[in-house]
Amino acid sequence: MANYYSPEISEDFLYRNGLRDRWYAVCPSSFIQPGRIEKLRRLGQDWILYRDTAGKVSMLEDRCPHRGAPLSQATHLGDRVGCKYHGVQVDGTGTVRAVPGMPGCEIEGQRLVTAPVVRELAGAVFAWFGTDADAEPAELTFPDPLTDDGISSFLCYAEWDCNWRFGLENLLDPMHGTFLHHDSHSMSEGDTKAKFQIRESDRGFFFEKTDQVGVNFDWVELCDTGADWVDLSIPYPPSAGPGGAFGIVGMVIPIDATSCGVFFWRYRKVSGWLRDTWRFLYKTTLEPRHWEVLEQDRVMLEGMAPDADAAENLYQHDLGVMRIRRLFRKQAKRQAKAMADSGPSSGARTRPTGTRNTTEVKAATA
Q1: Which domain CATH number covers 209?
Q2: Which pick of 21, 56, 243, 272 has the fewest CB atoms within 10 Å?
Q3: Contact, 82 vs 89, CB < 8 A?
Q4: SUPFAM superfamilies under this entry (predicted)?
Q5: Does 10 fall in a domain?
Q6: What stretches of the chain show up as alpha helix (H) in DSSP?
Q7: Is pLDDT of 38 > 70?
Q8: Dihedral pair phi/psi, residue 171, rounded to 5°
């Protein structure tokens, strides 16, 4: 496998393994424990994540700049990791800090390991995956339901054995809720027939039913605020506790061409003692039901052939799916060309280290 910034990466690789020049939710924050190195595969590449002694998360490509040995087998050294093969020490910015076997070696002080910019919010680690090692990351505006102090949320994370686009397209298909999730307590109402429209928004577009609102999974908004995410709302009866409609912020991260990680923040707008009531009710009663709905999605998507989208017969209900496919294919083509035109790259800037990685921690489940 070529390194992360290899000009050999193709349009098809990007389309199957994940587009660049965007932020992704990488994993739940709980995955990265103090003193440990966590290996993850994301966007078809292997990475490591670790926390330094101050709790800040860093992310590095799983490749020592000396001989290409896996840094996932390295020793955690507080603010850096030490490769077990020859002891080369790399910090969280991807800069070689020491070569114990040859002090003063010319690779010391050089940034030779891909190190995505990292942030934390709402119980998850986010990272910027770019096409250009020298470009600064785009601004990231976090989904407003995850930053509003008047909203309480729970993060649900799962890994599915299907292409990442299938996971995202599932969220842009409101009609499947009427059929696949018909027995769910929250999606058992509504007409089995519908007309849909696309409506532009200042952060993306809505895909919504024109003849039914506030009954079932009737609309979804695809948002691009530096990261791709969806917002949707499902009506809840009073018996489901305080807070009115039940909202979901959803994100999908490609693991590789055949698997993905799905993030669902389930939220309601509640405060004070009603917040405590809602959170108790969710953990004791509602959460298992929501996992049942996710399991229905997982079983359906994992049962589809990897090339299921190559022999389809789409209709009006699939306008949202068709739009995002055209958009992503266009972006994959542009990104592959930009990487090929840039020529060979070591995957990191060669310069003394700076404050490349930042971590912003905010508890969203308090």
Answers
A1: 3.90.380.10
A2: 272
A3: yes
A4: Bet v1-like, ISP domain
A5: no
A6: 11-17, 164-171, 176-179, 272-281, 287-302, 319-342
A7: yes
A8: -75, -20
Q: How far apart are CA 132 and CA 112, in angstroms?
A: 14
Identify each DSSP E strand in the chain by its residue range: 22-28, 37-42, 45-51, 57-61, 75-76, 80-82, 89-91, 96-98, 118-121, 124-129, 151-160, 196-201, 204-209, 219-224, 228-234, 246-256, 259-269
Provide the mean pLDDT of the chain.
90
Q: Is residue 343 part of a domain?
A: no
This prediction has a pTM of: 0.90
Residues 118 and 256 occupy one common structural domain: no
Using alpha carbons only, what angle is made at residue 194 by residues 191 and 196, rounded to the nearest 5 degrees? 145
Q: With both helix axes pointing from N to C terminus, report the angle between 164-171 and 287-302 in degrees, rounded to the nearest 10.
A: 130
Closest CA to 122 of 285, 251, 270, 281: 251
Q: CA of 342: how far to CAs of 5, 95, 100, 265, in Å?
A: 9, 22, 34, 38
Structural domain count, the chain: 2
Q: What percent of the chain has pLDDT over 70?
A: 92
User: Residue 97 pLDDT > 80, yes or no?
Assistant: yes
Residues 204 and 275 reside in one and the same domain: yes
Amino acid at 166: F
Return the pLDDT at 263. 98
User: Alpha-carbon distance 58 to 359, whole Å?
Assistant: 8
Q: Are 262 and 167 in contact (CB under 8 A)?
A: yes
Confidence (pLDDT) at 2: 61
